Automatic annotation (TrEMBL):
InterPro entries: tRNA_Adeno_NH3ase_assoc_put
Domain of life where this protein originates: Bacteria
Region span, Disordered: 92-133
Biased composition range(s): Acidic residues: 103-119
Protein name: Putative tRNA adenosine deaminase-associated protein
Length: 178
C-alpha cells in the first residue's frame, strides 16, 4: 500500500490565508524529530502542517508552530502502528485514554462514589481507534468534531484530508501534489 505525504504552510491569516507546499523529505521518527524537520522547513514561526495518508487505511496530521510542541492526530492508531510511521504515533494518547482523562476532569473528588455505570467502558469509546490531539486544527477552522467524524466514519483517507483541506483552504494545493 502506498503512502502520500505533503507538507503545507499558510501565508497570511483568516480569509487572506493561502497555503503553499513546502519541500521536505518526511522520515519516520519521533514527534520531536519530525517537529524539528517541520520547523526547519520555514523561515518564521508560521504553522507547518504535515499530511500523511496510508492508502485505504488511515490519515494523520502533524502540526508545529515555531517553537511550540508538535501536535499529532492519527485516524486509526491500530493500523498506523504497523506502518513506517509507527514511532510517530507510539506515545500518543488513544481515544479511550483521552475519554478517561476527560471523565477524570469532570468527576467528583470522591473516587469511591463511582457507580457501576461509570465503571463499565463506553462501547462507543471502545470502538474508537484514533489517537492524539483532535483539536490541533481548531484555531485554523477545522473543529475536533470533524476529525473525529472522519476518523470514525470509514471515510477514505484521501477524501478525509481533502475535506479537511476544503475547510482550511488547502484542498487545491493538496490535490496538486498527488
Amino acid at each position: 500500500m502506498a503512502y502520500f505525504t505533503a507538507v503545507l504552510s499558510p501565508d497570511g491569516s483568516g480569509d487572506d490565508r493561502e497555503w503553499r507546499s513546502v519541500e521536505i523529505d518526511l522520515e519516520a521518527g519521533s514527534p520531536d524529530e519530525l517537529g524539528d524537520a517541520l520547523r526547519g522547513a520555514v523561515d518564521d514561526d508560521s504553522p507547518v502542517l504535515a499530511v500523511l495518508e496510508r492508502e485505504d487505511e488511515w490519515f494523520a496530521l502533524v502540526r508545529t508552530d515555531g517553537p511550540i510542541d508538535v501536535k499529532v492526530f492519527v485516524s486509526d492508531a491500530v493500523a498506523a502502528a504497523d506502518s513506517a510511521y509507527a514511532p510517530l504515533f507510539a506515545e500518543l494518547p488513544t481515544a479511550g485514554e483521552n475519554a478517561r482523562a476527560d471523565d477524570a476532569e469532570d468527576s467528583d473528588d470522591d473516587p469511591e462514589e463511582e457507580s457501576d455505570e461509570e465503571a463499565r467502558p463506553d462501547p462507543a469509546v471502545a470502538e474508537d481507534v484514533w489517537a492524539g490531539d483532535p483539536e490541533l486544527l481548531t484555531d485554523l477552522g477545522c473543529p475536533a468534531e470533524v476529525l473525529l467524524r472522519l476518523s470514525g466514519s470509514g471515510t477514505d483517507p484521501a477524501a478525509a484530508t481533502v475535506e479537511i483541506g476544503e475547510l482550511l483552504g488547502f484542498a487545491d494545493v493538496l490535490e496538486s501534489l498527488r
